[in-house]
From TrEMBL:
Belongs to the TmcA family. Residues 372-561 form the N-acetyltransferase domain. GO terms for molecular function: 18S rRNA cytidine N-acetyltransferase activity; ATP binding; tRNA binding; tRNA cytidine N4-acetyltransferase activity. Catalyzes the formation of N(4)-acetylcytidine (ac(4)C) at the wobble position of tRNA(Met), by using acetyl-CoA as an acetyl donor and ATP (or GTP). Acetyl-CoA binds at residues 486-488, 526. It is found in: Cytoplasm. InterPro entries: Acyl_CoA_acyltransferase, GNAT_dom, Helicase_ATP-bd, P-loop_NTPase, TcmA/NAT10_helicase, TmcA/NAT10/Kre33, TmcA/NAT10_N, tRNA_acetyltr_TmcA. Coiled coil: none annotated. This is tRNA(Met) cytidine acetyltransferase TmcA.
Length: 699
């Protein structure tokens, strides 16, 4: 048995020899915790070490930092961290700063006896105490943990810090030197050196070539590490380097940061485009980039604090294979800052549910034979069953790129959130899950302030947006259940399970006094069609695109009570009248698939009058130019959207871009892959003729 200080010194020696890191959980009075950590540092040579303190602790001469500042530490390195979790437990930030700790380092998690940490979080952390070194003031002696099995040591040269990184650098360079249209996809857990590999490869290419290289990422800060490593390698090779805002020049090679939406809006002449943290950018956006740029590298974290990569693995690669069947994959497994079997990485992955496993099981051929139990989970169910919790979180991550460990903590701590699951009764397999938020029941004064733009309370997304948009009180006075996330296991999708799941949720809350269901999601044709098929009514499409997703947020509702039925016509009428108008201005650049799916929420505008019908018939037979009948055509199309079923995809695109979005003929020709304006006009007349014929057949 050993004292707390002797344990720390021994563990520190273990870590240094094995090039691994340890999580140290310290519990006791604040003064005892501070004294123990300070005593440890007095025994260490800290002259060249980086020690960072997060939280309200007084240890030596260290300056406390806010935990949120840890999110800006990507790419940096530290030797020791002291994190006070007594008052704040920010999962994303903790994961980010722990990723900076190099092998041989320790991370101290301090929980004082006056801790304000949520009881459920304390209970959750207890499940993983066996994976950390726990030192408690209430105990007088401690047992040393076992040393984990060690793998090959890290290869560390001035250029590469692992064999995987060297392989990745050569792979990136081959994208430029090899055949076009053979993109590279690099995946790895955190700390494997993906971003630095891109920087090294860029500098290597700049030695002998004059290139224009684009770098993009969901956030500008994400590319700093790429620029830093490119500059470092360039200087090692005595290359000329100059730095400007968003641009690095090495010899005659320009490396430029360009935002994802800018790349799509204005085509750039690039010799190489590198996408860092690609999983945080929606697949449709990435696929558009693929069609526009012939030499691309995608780099992304699979299991990390971002919590996004597994959905990327499942969805994007499948779609990429159709566009670029010769794409290549490199998986970087070896860490560059620490050794394999790292205790800190194991603890973080377990606590924050980052051990996402691939779904290798296939779906049953006969979905109808499945017996699925749909039910609401209690928080205690998740606290007591870490395997279920991991399965649940993995499923959410596979379906939603923005799901992060902080979402898991919110589910544990926020009483307004609840979780439903669908479990196959025989196999006990988790097939689907959803996160729900109870919202509404706001007071009149607050509602008035919301409508006049003076306040916007958190946690009530749907009621606030509805009352602000429609300028009526009822949606905010009433109670809503908002579907925040919904996911179905990959092998079981497109078989009606999601619809059955939502029906079970709807039936349950219809008897619990809930007035309406709501949801807000990134608008895509597939998702819009899904929610429309469930009877949800579209109310509002967000004006601005989400910077990370590149999509507009769509708000949809479904009434459950007579009270909600009373105001629903106001919502439907608002979307029916405003959205078609917005398609001529704000949303004129929406692709035709998404536009078509959104227009399904717009029914008959008004009946076509006899004279208008005659003018349309003259138009389809070659008389009257488009400009002379533009208004009638628009009314006709919006009143008869169901007839789109009789059109080809190209015809639908022509009708939407020209008649509904009122684009210039030149844009219609280019976008619809037509040959000249005459071809476009002929296609439009044929499309309208097919719609008219379809109506006549129905009558």
């Amino acid at each position: 048995m050993h004292s707390a200080l002797s344990i720390l010194n021994t563990i520190s020696s273990y870590a240094a020899v094995a090039n691994i890191r340890y999580p140290i959980l310290i519990e006791g009075t604040k003064s005892w915790c501070e004294a123990l950590v300070e005593s440890y540092f007095m025994t260490q040579e800290l002259e060249s070490k980086c020690v960072e303190l997060y939280g309200e602790l007084k240890i030596a001469s260290l300056t406390p930092l806010s935990i949120k500042s840890g999110l800006k530490k990507l790419g940096q390195e530290s030797d020791f961290l002291i994190i006070d979790i007594s008052d704040e437990f920010n999962a994303n930030a903790i994961n980010a700063i722990c990723g900076t700790v190099i092998g041989g380092g320790l991370v101290f998690f301090i929980q004082s006896t006056d801790s304000k940490l949520s009881l459920v979080v304390k209970r959750w952390l207890k499940n993983f105490e066996h994976l950390a070194v726990c030192l408690k003031e209430s105990e007088s002696s401690y047992v040393l943990p076992q040393i984990p099995p060690l793998n090959q040591p890290i290869v560390h040269t001035s250029m590469y810090r692992s064999l995987d990184q060297e392989k990745a650098v050569h792979g990136i360079m081959k994208v430029v030197t090899g055949h076009a249209k053979r993109p590279l996809v690099m995946t790895a857990d955190r700390g494997r050196g993906k971003s630095s590999a891109i920087g090294i490869a860029i500098a290597e290419l700049a030695i002998t070539r004059k290139l224009t290289i684009g770098i993009t990422a969901p956030q500008r800060a994400s590319v700093d590490e790429i620029f830093m490593h490119a500059e470092r390698i360039a200087l090692l090779n005595n290359l000329k380097v100059s730095i400007q805002k968003n641009q690095l020049t090495i010899n005659e090679t320009q490396i430029i940061y360009i935002a994802p939406d800018e790349l799509l809006r204005v085509s750039k002449n690039l010799d190489l485009l590198c996408v860092d943290e690609a999983a945080a950018i929606p697949a449709p956006m990435l696929l558009s980039l693929i069609e526009q740029y012939s030499r691309m590298v995608f780099s992304t974290t699979i299991n990390g604090y971002e919590g996004t990569g597994r959905g990327f693995e499942i969805k994007f690669k499948k779609q990429l294979a159709q566009l670029r069947p010769s794409y290549r994959v490199i998986e970087m497994k070896q860490p560059i800052r620490w050794n394999m079997n790292d205790p800190l990485e194991l603890w973080l992955s377990s606590v924050f549910l980052l051990n996402h496993m691939d779904d290798t099981s296939s779906s049953l051929e006969d979905i109808s034979s499945l017996s699925i139990d749909f039910s609401s989970l209690l928080i205690s169910d998740l606290l007591d069953n870490t395997d279920l919790a991991q399965s649940l979180f993995s499923l959410l991550v596979s379906a939603h790129y923005q799901t992060s460990p902080n979402d898991w903590l919110s589910l544990l701590m926020d009483p307004t959130l609840s979780c439903w699951v669908g479990i196959e009764k025989d196999s006990k397999r988790l097939l689907c899950c959803t996160l729900l938020s109870k919202e509404g029941e706001l007071d009149n004064d607050l509602i008035n302030d919301i409508q006049y733009g003076r306040r916007r309370p958190k946690g009530h997304l749907a009621p606030v947006s509805l009352t602000q948009t429609l300028c009526i009180d009822e949606p905010a006075l009433q109670t809503s259940i908002r579907v925040m996330r919904i996911a179905v296991a990959v092998g079981y999708q497109h078989n009606g399970i999601g619809s059955q799941f939502m029906k079970a949720i709807e039936d349950y809350y219809s008897t619990k006094g809930i007035d309406y269901l709501s949801t807000s999601f990134g608008s895509t044709a597939e998702l819009n069609n899904f929610w429309n098929s469930l009877g949800f009514k579209f109310v509002r499409l967000g004006i601005s695109k989400d910077k990370a997703s590149g999509t507009h947020s769509l708000l949809a509702v479904k009434p459950l009570s007579n009270k909600a039925d009373a105001w629903l016509p106001v919502a439907i009428d608002y979307f029916k009248t405003s959205f078609p108008e917005q398609l001529m201005s704000t949303f004129s650049s929406l692709n035709h698939h998404e536009t078509h799916s959104l227009l399904m929420g717009v029914s008959n505008i008004e009946p076509i009058k006899p004279l208008m019908e005659k003018r349309i018939n003259i138009f389809i037979e070659g008389g009257l130019g488009f400009e002379l009948i533009q208004f009638e055509l628009r009314q006709f199309v919006l009143s008869n959207l169901s007839t789109f079923a009789s059109l080809t995809n190209q015809q639908i695109e022509v009708v939407i871009t020209k008649v509904i979005q009122v684009q210039d003929w030149s844009l219609v020709v280019a976008q619809c892959d037509l040959v000249g304006r005459k071809n476009a006009e002929r296609t439009l007349r044929e499309s309208i003729k097919a719609m008219v014929y379809n109506l006549q057949c129905k009558s």
